[in-house]
């Protein structure tokens, strides 16, 4: 195959990177997948052959340059190959969230005009069939897993392997055209289009060029000294920019191996088997893992729990300092080494983190206690700050400069500035090309000089150069008395507690703050079982008096912590309610990346918010819900409203 276009100092497209890898380290592992309990592996040379066969198959099916190819399903090598093959054929890959409902898929596919969809299984096929009448440009679907599809109409439905065989059989017919299309690809060609999560409205198609992908992958890999021998586990949604840059961009740039778990249910087992050296997870994943650890310790013997608590206290004291190479006494190092043998090492092995050399969390702020817990174990967990429009990386924490209260310094090639209203702006080689078919939003977000508005409020620390994010700029407001209102700051503190899954704080333009809280059914359910407390539903457990007492103690502990921060002390929660249902993306309350849609929640639960502020002790409500099969229903409940003790602030004392 003809060599794709490259610059003097490297390839100019994602397919060109693949060609380089297949030539320079042909027999090194590129992708692995666990299927039926057995790990399958493909080298870089084999991967190029698989991708080329699919790209040739696309051409035989009539894929034109500039077409859009939707890619939907769980993390599988075949779907990553589909994205690379689409670009190789001159088209644009558009990954979608696999748990999106049919209407959400219809919006994205209709907006970009996707002609072909490559999907994982029957579930995705059914969703697209349900809405295909709304998709005038849509023509064919290619599926991976044939189970359940034998009796479907296959006139516009093809099996993935059959399309590859079609490509191989017609290689001579299409190879010259495929090479010609690939030769046209350059730094300014579109590498991928990723849709935003749609926190405030309809998702927008973010166009990322090969320049964005390759330059970001190059600089971020060099920043953390990523190597070809590194391993990652690809388990986060393929439609999310983080997964794309880690599992495609950085993987192709460095040549490291991307490992795909068998399923969401086996992910933690597969994580332990792979033992990745490079790992990323949003805060929710780390919170869930910590919750499971704490649940197990509650069930442990008294001696084991004492031992765990004793050594973890020491780890919190000296672990981060040892990790950062700072001075620690010989006695403390010896005690920590004993803890590594007895507690930290086995725990890291259980979590699958024994070999993690570089770990990141991002997406939203992580609770400092959670962050410090992992670092105290000797796990090099760091924070980064980014967004889809930046091809992920804006700031990151260098080794030795890791703190829980910042998101690091500017990544290589990135510039930062803070506007007068506190909003963070950046520009870099990773800045997106445009929002597809949306010049107005593009102009609102990116100015003529390439500066992008993040929508987040923050400031750069003098001396250290570290960026601190306060909250979403649109969510930062003022209390009625003029004090700062930053809900995310309080919500993250609440979510540190294993019993709290989600929290939403209200208070903008009001005299005091209130909160909605979701309990974590796993953690609270485990407590109920240990104490022989029976319950039949989430709702019944959530309103149990002892659960309410526990949540109240958490709120009041957070209030004491918030009161210590003079700038944000006005954000203490005066009243709260434990919701009767979990906030859910299917109900429109969260995005597919689990971000809170505040406006929708405020509208949907207006009656509960009113009761929080009018002094009511309880409120009766009825809420529409969406079941897994798409049917609608409703839940009725009478919720108890609790008052929480708050601490006096310097502002109040001065007023007195």
In brief, what are we looking at here?
This protein is of the alpha/beta class and 656 residues long. It has 22 helices and 30 strands. Among the domains are: 6-279, Rossmann fold; 477-655, GMP Synthetase, Chain A, domain 3 (2-Layer Sandwich), CATH 3.30.300.
Detailed description of the structure:
The chain is an alpha/beta fold and 656 residues long. Among the domains are: 6-279, ANL, N-terminal domain (Rossmann fold), CATH 3.40.50; 477-655, ANL, C-terminal domain (GMP Synthetase, Chain A, domain 3), CATH 3.30.300. 40% of the residues lie in helices and 23% in strands. It is built from 22 helices and 30 strands. Strand 26 and strand 27 (513-519) form a beta hairpin. The longest helix has 22 residues, at 302-323. The radius of gyration is 26 Å and the shape is globular. The N and C termini lie far apart (80 Å). The relative contact order is 0.07.
């Amino acid at each position: 195959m003809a060599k794709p276009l490259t610059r003097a100092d490297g390839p100019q497209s994602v397919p060109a990177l693949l060609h380089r890898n297949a030539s320079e380290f042909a027999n090194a592992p590129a992708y692995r997948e666990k299927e039926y309990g057995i790990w399958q592996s493909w080298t870089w040379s084999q991967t190029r052959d698989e991708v080329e066969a699919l790209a040739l198959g696309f051409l035989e099916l009539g894929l034109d340059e500039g077409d859009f190819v939707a890619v939907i399903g769980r993390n599988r090598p075949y779907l990553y190959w589909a994205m690379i093959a689409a670009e190789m054929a001159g088209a644009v890959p558009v990954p979608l969230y696999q748990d999106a409902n049919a209407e959400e898929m219809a919006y994205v596919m209709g907006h970009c005009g996707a002609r072909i969809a490559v999907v994982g299984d029957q579930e995705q096929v059914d969703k697209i069939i349900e809405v295909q009448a709304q998709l005038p440009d849509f023509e064919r679907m290619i599926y991976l897993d044939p189970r359940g599809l034998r009796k479907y109409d296959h006139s516009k439905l093809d099996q993935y392997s059959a399309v590859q065989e079609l490509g191989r059989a017609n290689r001579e017919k299409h190879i010259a055209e495929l090479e010609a299309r690939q030769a046209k690809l350059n730094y300014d060609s579109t590498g991928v289009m990723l849709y935003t999560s749609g926190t405030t409205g309809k998702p927008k198609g973010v166009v990322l060029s090969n320049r964005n992908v390759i330059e970001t992958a190059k600089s971020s890999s060099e920043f953390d000294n990523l190597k070809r021998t590194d391993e990652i586990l690809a388990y986060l949604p393929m439609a999310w920019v983080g997964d794309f840059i880690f599992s495609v961009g950085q993987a192709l740039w460095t040549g490291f191996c991307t490992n795909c778990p068998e399923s969401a249910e086996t992910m933690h087992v597969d994580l332990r088997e792979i033992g990745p050296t490079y790992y990323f997870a949003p805060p929710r994943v780390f919170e869930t893992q910590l919750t499971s650890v704490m649940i197990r310790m509650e069930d442990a013997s008294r001696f084991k729990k004492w031992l765990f608590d004793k050594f973890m206290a020491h780890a919190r004291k000296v672990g981060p300092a040892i990790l950062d190479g700072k001075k620690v006494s010989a006695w403390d190092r010896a005690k920590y080494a004993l803890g590594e043998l007895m507690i930290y090492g086995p725990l890291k092995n259980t979590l699958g983190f024994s070999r993690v050399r570089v770990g990141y969390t991002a997406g939203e702020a992580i609770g400092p206690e959670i962050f410090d817990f992992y670092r105290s174990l000797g796990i090099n967990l760091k924070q980064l700050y980014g967004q889809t429009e930046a091809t992920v990386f804006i700031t990151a924490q260098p080794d030795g400069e890791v703190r829980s209260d910042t998101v690091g310094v500017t990544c290589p090639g990135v510039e930062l500035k803070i506007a007068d209203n506190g909003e963070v702006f950046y520009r870099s080689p990773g800045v997106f090309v445009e929002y597809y078919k949306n010049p107005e939003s593009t102009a609102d977000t990116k100015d003529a000089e390439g500066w992008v508005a993040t929508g987040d409020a923050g400031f750069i620390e003098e001396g250290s150069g570290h960026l601190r994010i306060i909250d979403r700029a649109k969510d930062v407001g003022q209390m009625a008395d003029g004090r700062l209102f930053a809900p995310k700051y309080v919500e993250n503190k609440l979510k540190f507690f294993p019993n709290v899954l989600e929290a939403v704080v209200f208070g903008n333009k009001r005299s005091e703050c209130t909160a909605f809280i979701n309990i974590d059914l796993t953690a609270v359910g485990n407590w109920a079982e240990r104490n022989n407390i029976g319950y039949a539903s989430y709702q019944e457990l959530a309103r149990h008096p002892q659960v309410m007492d526990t949540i109240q103690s958490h709120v009041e502990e957070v209030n004491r912590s918030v009161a210590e921060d003079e700038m944000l002390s006005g954000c203490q929660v005066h009243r709260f309610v434990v919701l009767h249902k979990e906030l859910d993306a299917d109900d429109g309350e969260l995005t597919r990346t689990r971000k809170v849609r505040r406006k929708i929640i405020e509208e949907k639960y207006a009656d509960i918010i009113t009761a929080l502020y009018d002094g009511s002790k309880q409120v009766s409500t009825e809420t529409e819900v969406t079941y897994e099969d798409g049917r609608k229903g409703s839940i009725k409940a009478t919720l108890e409203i609790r008052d929480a003790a708050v601490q006096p602030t310097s502002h109040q004392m001065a007023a007195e």
